[in-house]
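Subject: sequence -> structure tokens, single chain

Hey, anyone have a minute? Need the predicted structure for the following. Not urgent.
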Amino acid sequence: MSTDANAPLISVVSPVYLAEDLVDDLTDQIRSSVSQITDDFEIVLVDDGSPDDSWERIEKQCRSDPRVKGVQLSRNFGQHQALTAALATAEGEYVVVMDCDLQDHPRDIPRLYEEITKGYDLVLTRKRSRAHGGVRNWTGAGYSVVFNALMPDGRLRDHKGVGNYSILSRKVVDGFLAMKDRHRHYLGLIRWMGFQASVIEIDHHERASGSTSYTFRRLLREATVGITSESERLLRLSVVGGFVFVALAVILALSLVVLWLTSGFLQGWTSLMVVNLLGIGLVLSSLGVAGIYLGNIFEQTKERPLYLIRNQLNTGSGD
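Reply:
Had a minute. Here:
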């Protein structure tokens, strides 16, 4: 845990991507909100290799206010890696995590702080409703159902409407940073640690400017990472699927024998289906078990850094 007596009371951290029109408004609203609690705070903005002028806007904010820290990653590493960089930079006793799109409003920060000072280690937020399109809301609800069905531990299950907007104590931040997982999922790791948590309800707003960078393909990838990094049940399902195909092949084989002994059968087609189904079952069983495990092990054993930093401002190193 941090023992720096000069550390701020509150850090507010946010990964930034495709948000050049939002950075100024984001920092202004954070300052306005946190100032209701204390003037002893910092804002950490991490540019996750954004192709627009987000970093230039962050630089401007850092020059005008030393409480704003800027970190520019060397390329786009992904939201959860950028969030890890932000948490590694933050020095506050309490750390607020939020997205940069202002759909989760900074004015809820005082409520988060009030709740965590009741003795909790972290406070999460549940959205009363999501201001996304109907398709994304529908797919999000479907993901939640699948995710929960695959989680072996009830603590890891996704609670509908709970998002990244949260406040963490210093020991939770330190615990998160101690995780060496290559495939990182913020909420999954936070829930896995098991610290005492509370949840408050908030409103979700329309994006203030621009459009989300989360395409369907990227959302699908994030969903896959979220599931496979926290549960091995998907592997077990692939094995079950393989055995189902094998069982079906055995049933067809027995049917083939019965038809041959009774009324005969059309030669070629049935036997071909039996062989194909048996082969599919065996392939699914072997590849499902070996492929995912091997892929995850391969990524983990590379031991590459989660992110690389190109520039830093007001962080005390590389300014």
